[in-house]
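not sure who needs this but someone in the group chat was asking about MFS transporter from Nonomuraea recticatena so here u go. i didnt clean anything up, its just raw.
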Amino acid sequence: MLAVPGMTPLLGISLLVRAAITADAMALTMYVVLALDMSYAAAGAVVAALTAGVALGGPLLGRMIDRRGLRTVLLATVAPQIVFWLTVPVQPYVILLGASFAAGLLMVPVQSVTRQAITAMTTTAQRRAAFALDSVAGELSYMVGPAVVILCAAKMSPGVVAWGVGAAIVAGGAGIALLNPPMRAEDETDGDAAARPRRREWLGARMAAVLTMGFGVAMLLSGVDLAIVATLQEAGQVSWAAMVIAVFGVTSVAGGLVYGALSRPMPTWLLLGLLGLVTIPAGFAHDWPWLCVAVIGSGLLTAPTLSTVSDAVSRLAPAGVRGEATGMQASAASAGFALGSPIVGMAIDVSAPAGGFAAAGLAGLLAALTGYLLSRRSPAAASSPSSSAQALEPCDTVAPAP
């Protein structure tokens, strides 16, 4: 996959930007808590405003890419990021709250751009492996970004850390603009393939099923993070949380690489259902060594599940609306991450840390079941056998080996 022209620089720049974006919430939290000397609840409100902006802005920016092109959108997002991050250290809290929402609304759409470019640069046979690599890059950014911010915050002022995060986001956006990867394949640039169909023609039960499962896996993952911390806090071993999360991330990378090398895909609902099932028993671990073992199963299934969601969206979205569809996918993930922690937190409060793993796993199972039922209600299921097989391939059938 790395031999595909343009793929290596695309994934490299994407890794840089995504690491910075996964760290932006931590950078803002430390600024509010340390520099403004305010509560974690106040910091959480700023992060929530940023997340809400990202969730709302994803489809809008994707629609702009479909209509105006990649570089226009990058210019419209990089410039506000420069202004926001440069002024973070001088903004009072109330202004920062509103500015964070605006910054999220105009966040550099690196995830959706990367997924669109992968779809355009690869053949159908290559795409699953490419999306597996993309999921691996996402896991690496999740492991590196927040950790770097925490280390830097111990030696620098929170304002300088915020500048560094902003600089990485801006540099990555500029790098993607210079690379200018294709958003459509060569056979999709003219004629009917480039036309923009009406939303009701493509945003049906099939796409709703995939977006629901994307929401579910994000909700599960954010809940697992919180359950890990709660379990270790109860055991008096919270300092080992980084080790457990590192094991989770490394096994996810391994799972993504193995899945990308397989000759046959697996249904999205099945992967997500298995992910939910293996997450629930992790609640029986009560200290960090056993918790490291308990999260291996979840880790191995995380990147494969994320990659199948991306693959399904790329197959179901026509070329003329692919930007909007990938933006919706990013919004679904943002909403899942935003809701996962409070819901799992409530389960922990009313029960025990084990209840957090149970709630996260059940959320994944519910999303998998909903996605399965929605896909079965699709009109594609009633079409001819040949067209049905092709339409059902992204979510719940196994495609023939290339």
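also The domain at 197-376+388-402 is CATH 1.20.1250.20 (Growth Hormone; Chain: A;). if thats useful
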